[in-house]
C-alpha cells in the first residue's frame, strides 16, 4: 500500500537536530523529501489537523507540528529507536472520509507490526483508529483517558461529543472490553456512567487515579489501543484546549499513564488528541505533550514480551474460595512483577481469558472475596 499519497511532507526545521547528536531529531526518519520506510519501523508518528468533528472549529496553527518542535529536541532514551514520522495526514473530502482514511492507514501499519502514534486533531478521530481493528479476526479492548465521557446522542451533537457512543454501538461488534479513565464525575451525566456499568465496563475517576495511579495500570495493560484527550489534563499544566478546566490530571500523572500504555505488550496504537496551539501561548502544553510522547516511546522500548503464562517467566498462584468458583488462578511476572488473573467462563469451560489485574486483586481473593475484575470479565465472557 502506497501510504505516501495520504500525507504532506514536513518542513525541515521541524526535524532539525540541535547541537547535541543525542536528541531524537538525529534518530527519526521523517517525510521531508522521501517517504520513510514505515515497514521497518517500530513506531510511526502521524500528524492530524482534522477539526470538523469539533464544535469549536479548527485552530489557526497545526498542533502536531508544535509538539514536534519540542519532541525532537528531547534526548533519546537508552537503547535503539526505530521511529518514522510519516508527516501530516491530508483530511478527506468529508469527515467520514478522514475516518476511513485513518482506518486504512492504521490497518496497514498494524499488519506490519508498526505502532501508529496519532498526534493532534479533535478527539473523535479515534473513531478512525477504532475502525482499523475491524480488520483483525478477534475481539479487542481499548481505553480512553478524558475528562468527559463522550456518549452524547449522535443526532444533533458534534462528533467530538458522541464518538464513544458510536464505537460502543458499532455493528458488527468486535469489542471485548472498554475502560474510561480520569473522567470528572461532575462533568458526566449519571445515566452515562450507569450505562457503562450495565455494559460491565470499568471506569476510574480522576480522584481515584490521583489516590493510587497504579489502579490505572491493569486497565491500560488490557487495551489494544489507547485514546488520550488533552482535556484530561488540568489547564494550569497544559493550557492547550478549550474550554479551559482548572481540574484534571497533572503532567506527571499523564506522563505515567503514557508510560503504562507504551509498556503494554498488547497495545498496538496510541492517540493523543485535542491539542490547540492557539491557546498555548508559552508552549507549555506542547512541551507537556511532547514529554508524554517521550514516555510512551520509552515505555515501548522497555516492553518485556511476557505473554507465555506457562513459561518460567511467571509464578502461578492458585487460591481456594468457599463458593463458585472454587479456585482462582493468578500469574505474576518474575521480572515485571505484574499480576494477571485467569477467568474461565461459568457457562462454557472451554472459554477462558487471562486478564491484567493488580496485587490487591490477589489479596482480595486470598481473603475469600471475588475480585471485581473477575466479576466484570465473567459477565463479558457471557
UniProtKB/TrEMBL annotation:
The keyword Nucleus does not apply. This is Formiminoglutamase. PANTHER family: ARGINASE/AGMATINASE, GUANIDINO ACID HYDROLASE, MITOCHONDRIAL. Belongs to the arginase family. Signal peptide: none annotated. The keyword Kinase does not apply. Transmembrane segments: none annotated. It comes from Hymenobacter fodinae. GO terms for biological process: putrescine biosynthetic process from arginine, via agmatine. GO terms for molecular function: agmatinase activity; metal ion binding. Keywords: Hydrolase, Metal-binding.
Amino acid at each position: 500500500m502506497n501510504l505516501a499519497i495520504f500525507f504532506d511532507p514536513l518542513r525541515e526545521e521541524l526535524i532539525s537536530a540541535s547541537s547535541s547528536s543525542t536528541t531524537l531529531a538525529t534518530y527519526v526518519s521523517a517525510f521531508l523529501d522521501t517517504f520513510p520506510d514505515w515497514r521497518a519501523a517500530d513506531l510511526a508518528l502521524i500528524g492530524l489537523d482534522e477539526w470538523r468533528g469539533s464544535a469549536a472549529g479548527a485552530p489557526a496553527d497545526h498542533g502536531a507540528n508544535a509538539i514536534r518542535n519540542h519532541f525532537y529536541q528531547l534526548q533519546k532514551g537508552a537503547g535503539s529507536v526505530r521511529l518514522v514520522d510519516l508527516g501530516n495526514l491530508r483530511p478527506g473530502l468529508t469527515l467520514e472520509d478522514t475516518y476511513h482514511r485513518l482506518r486504512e492507514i492504521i490497518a496497514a501499519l498494524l499488519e506490519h507490526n508498526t505502532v501508529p502514534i496519532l498526534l493532534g486533531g479533535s478527539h473523535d478521530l479515534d473513531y478512525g483508529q477504532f475502525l482499523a481493528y475491524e480488520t483483525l479476526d478477534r475481539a479487542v479492548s481499548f481505553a480512553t483517558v478524558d475528562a468527559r465521557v463522550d456518549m452524547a446522542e449522535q443526532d444533533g451533537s458534534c462528533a467530538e461529543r458522541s464518538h464513544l457512543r458510536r464505537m460502543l454501538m458499532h455493528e458488527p461488534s468486535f469489542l471485548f472490553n472498554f475502560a474510561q479513565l480520569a473522567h470528572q464525575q461532575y462533568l458526566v451525566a449519571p445515566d452515562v456512567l450507569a450505562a457503562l456499568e450495565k455494559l460491565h465496563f470499568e471506569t476510574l475517576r480522576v480522584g481515584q487515579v490521583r489516590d493510587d495511579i497504579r489502579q490505572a495500570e491493569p486497565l491500560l495493560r488490557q487495551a489494544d489501543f489507547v485514546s488520550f484527550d488533552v482535556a484530561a489534563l488540568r489547564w494550569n499544566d497544559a493550557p492547550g484546549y478549550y474550554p479551559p478546566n482548572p481540574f484534571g490530571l497533572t503532567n506527571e500523572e499523564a506522563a505515567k499513564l503514557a508510560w503504562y500504555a507504551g509498556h503494554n505488550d498488547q497495545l498496538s496504537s496510541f492517540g493523543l488528541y485535542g491539542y490547540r496551539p492557539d491557546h498555548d501561548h508559552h508552549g507549555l502544553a506542547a512541551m507537556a505533550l511532547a514529554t508524554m510522547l517521550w514516555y510512551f516511546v520509552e515505555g515501548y522500548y522497555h516492553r518485556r514480551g511476557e505473554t507465555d503464562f506457562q513459561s518460567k517467566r511467571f509464578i502461578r498462584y492458585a487460591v481456594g474460595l468457599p463458593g463458585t468458583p472454587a479456585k482462582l488462578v493468578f500469574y505474576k511476572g518474575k521480572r515485571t512483577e505484574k499480576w494477571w488473573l485467569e477467568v474461565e467462563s461459568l457457562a462454557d469451560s472451554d472459554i477462558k481469558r487471562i486478564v491484567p489485574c493488580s496485587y490487591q486483586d490477589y489479596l482480595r481473593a486470598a481473603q475469600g472475596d471475588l475480585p471485581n475484575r473477575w466479576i466484570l470479565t465473567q459477565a463479558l465472557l457471557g
